[in-house]
Amino acid sequence: QTVVTQEPSLTVSPGGTVTLTCASSTGAVTSGYYPNWFQQKPGQAPRALIYSTNNKHSWTPARFSGSLLGGKAALTLSGVQPEDEAEYYCLLYYGGAQLWVFGGGTKLTVL
Amino acid sequence: QITLKESGPTLVKPTQTLTLTCTFSGFSLSSSGVGVGWIRQPPGKALEWLALIYWDDDKRYSPSLKSRLTITKDTSKNQVVLTMTNMDPVDTATYYCAHHYFDTTNFDYWGQGTLVTVSS
Predict the structure, then answer these.
(1) Eight-state DSSP code of residue B27
(2) pLDDT tens digits for chain A (111 residues)?
(3) How far is it, in rounded angstroms, from Cα B4 to Cα B35?
(4) What is the pLDDT of residue A1?
(5) What is the DSSP secondary structure assignment for residue A8, as one 8-state letter?
(6) Residue B103 pLDDT level (bands cut at 50, 70, 90)
(7) Between vectors from CA A56 to CA A90 and to CA B36, what angle results, nearest 5°?
(8) Which of A93, B53, B70, B113 would give a disulfide with B105, using CB separation of 3.0 to 4.6 Å?
(9) How far apart are CA A7 and CA A103, in angstroms?
(10) Residues of A in contact with B61 (CB under 8 A)
(11) What's residue B59's pLDDT?
(12) Between A and B, how many residue pairs show a Cβ–Cβ distance under 8 A?
């Protein structure tokens, strides 16, 4: 069974920078996994932030960026705002099996 | 403007079959490259991808749930229906549908979700 792993929790100070990562149990994450990132606040539906590794939606704030880092997908928040406190999920596409797998989520605390 | 909305029962009994409907607007499921997916989230837990249907009626299912899931579309009604058989209390979750693009494997627009509780 394919497992996608994220940091369970991270803490960052307002104005700071933080990087969340997303690893696959099958090996290095590449652009072929089309990494997606989502933000979810309590009681709300997930909101799409990043697709295909580093592409932003029209509504994605500029401080969010996606990349590949050390064999993982990564989401970097630069100049963190209090409203960025949320759960963040990555999603990877496994083309061979034609399925998508979410990571377990990272709870980001802004403190 | 793309919108999606899930509807269905809020409570089902164990062993029953769940039928959920995703009604959408702002796009056509007959347009090349377009799909609609279903994702669920048990209370306090992570998201789980369930199924996806494409404009050409191609379908994808989570391997762990494939035997219990069926996804269909009604293009004329702008609806996608997900059925899940043999419901169990562990299937209690908020169920979301989302708009999908084939080219970028992108789930961009999501519905508000509907909470389904499985209990006798």
Answers:
(1) S
(2) 899 999 999 999 999 999 999 999 999 999 999 999 999 999 999 999 999 999 999 999 999 999 999 999 999 999 999 999 999 999 999 998 889 999 999 999 999
(3) 12
(4) 86
(5) S
(6) confident
(7) 65
(8) A93
(9) 9
(10) 99
(11) 97
(12) 62
Q: Which of residues 78-97 of A touch B (CB under 8 A)?
A: 89, 91, 93, 97
Tell me the C-alpha to C-alpha distance, in Å, between residue B47 and each of A56, A106, B11, B103, B113: 21, 12, 20, 22, 12
Residue with tokens 């580093």: A54
**A46: closest chain B residue by CA:** B110
Interface subset of A 24-53, CB within 8 angstroms of B: 34, 36, 38, 40, 45-48, 51-52
- Do the Cβ atoms of A98 and B48 come within 8 Å? no
Cα nearest neighbour of B62 on chain A: A99
